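Archive entry: two folds, one per protein. Generate the first.
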Amino acid sequence: MKITRPRTLLGMVLVGLAFVTVPLLFAIGNAMIKIGQLAAESETVLSHSAAATMENQRLANLLQTMERNARQYLVLEDVASASDLLTLYDRDQATFERSVGALRALPSNPEMAQQLQRLAVLSKDVHRTLRGSRGEDFNDLIIERFQVMNGTVRDVAQGMRDLINVRLSDLRENTLSTQRALAWQSAALIPGTLVLVVLFLLLVGRPMRQVDRAIRELGEGDFSRPITVSGPNDIETLGRQLEWLRHRLKESTDEKNKFLRHMSHELKTPLANIREGTELLLDGSVGPLDIQQQEVTGILRDNGLKLQKLIENLLTFSAWQTQTASLELTEFQLKPMVFSVLSQHRLMLSNRKIKLQLNINAITVLADEGKLKLVVENLLSNAAKFTPNGGTINVGADMQGSELVIDVSDSGPGVHPDDGDRIFEAFYQGRRPQGGPVGGTGIGLSVVAECVQAHGGTVQLIRDGQPGAHFQARLPLRRSADKKVLAVANG
């Protein structure tokens, strides 16, 4: 017989609740039955004990009264007085027989039943003898029978006490046995309940972890792995909806990247013509230019270079979105690479009278030179974009322990407090106004983050209380994948 699990999460919760509560309810019900049985048995024993004690006491009292009346009857000469004594004896004899009957109705053993039977026979025998003729032998017989009856009553009383003690002992043993049974039942119920709870959590937790992983991957922009969720029908339906969402997001991302690639390539062709024309003008190929014309042409060339950088950022970002970034590790000097980047911006910085303060140590780097150069270019471009004319940009690179640390800071307005958590997101542009005639695309810092993360490092905004923005990139000395040295300082 195949056992089918509940089809919905609610059904699974209800089944799990039933599996947990049914054993508990069974244990409670069993405990109540056992306690009720013990209470009833205890009440019965106490009731029988009270009845036996009362009837034994009554037998002893009646027997004394009956013996006294019988002795008086034996010595009386007056017929009327003797008749009155016999009447009293008849009444006590009837009460005595009822008490014996009451004792015989109580639980007893064979010996006790035999003594009670003997007591009843003796009392009837004495009663018949008193109603018969008198004589000397008659008196001795009556006295002897009462002595036997007194002994039998004492034996019955002692037997009843012994029997009650046995029953109380049995009741005590039953109570202890019930306590042990309930204790073992509780001890077995606790781990059993825990096993059921753990099993239920596994059945529910596994699909919920799958849903959590799927949502986290979608949030991180990872659409490569199909989403499969196994479990109740409603959870599987949620998994299919997430898989549909993954396809839609992947299609949207692919369309966006395709648009970026096409747009970037389309922009590069006219931009190349513009740059070629400005270079011809600056070279004097079409005739000499005066000072003002040279300044205007220089501005055109600088902004052409800036547009080219923006387009390259778009192409780089698009490439990272379509494939996993791979590193082409080469060994090179960091300082010349940084100076080559600075030389591309030197004219623009000079025109805006922006000062550069450099603190770059001679470091040999084993890394992807193109990606590391892109990090420095974008951090410097971002600093120049927000630094006012006459401001200052600081660029530093040094080893700190086992990490290569690159710092770029400026004297601009800084990053808005509400932008700190989002400035490394693609296409996000902060609230601060940008300098220069050409605005940014909002992907420069996201490209920096991609390049640094490809090396196993991190980039962050440093809040040091100083004016302007301070970005710091940290790249580890060793990469976990190939254990190669990333950077070493030259002495």
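Generate the second and append.
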Amino acid sequence: MNKAQRERFQRAGWKVGTVGEFLELTPAEEDLIETKLRLGGLVRALRERSHLSQAALAKRIGSSQPRVAKIESHDPEVSLDLQMKAIFASRPSASRELAALIRKWEAPISARGTAHARRLVKTRPPLPGRNTKTAA
């Protein structure tokens, strides 16, 4: 929406804002939606660069061509797991590239932060149905 349209809507009494404001999303929810949208676009770009049809990619991930079309068209029912599976299937080096990206994200984490996270994992209550005497 350009500035003139925005001003015209505001003069008519409309409130102009973001989707996140309208749906009252948290920043984490907005980021998740943005990530899913970007992953859908990435699937299409990698598939096309690899000269794969949607049917060929579907065969690689054990799914169907319409499901790949849903991944690429940002269908909200598509899981992150399926999106990632399609990315890895369309480009063999994708898993190495993603691992390198994750290492970059992990680099700033302080030793104290990771020790605290380990302490939280060790002190969690035992899962239901488990022997409480052997749970750590």
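Annotation attached to the second fold: The mean pLDDT is 79. Helices lie at 3-11, 19-23, 27-49, 54-61, 65-72, 80-90, 94-106, 111-122.
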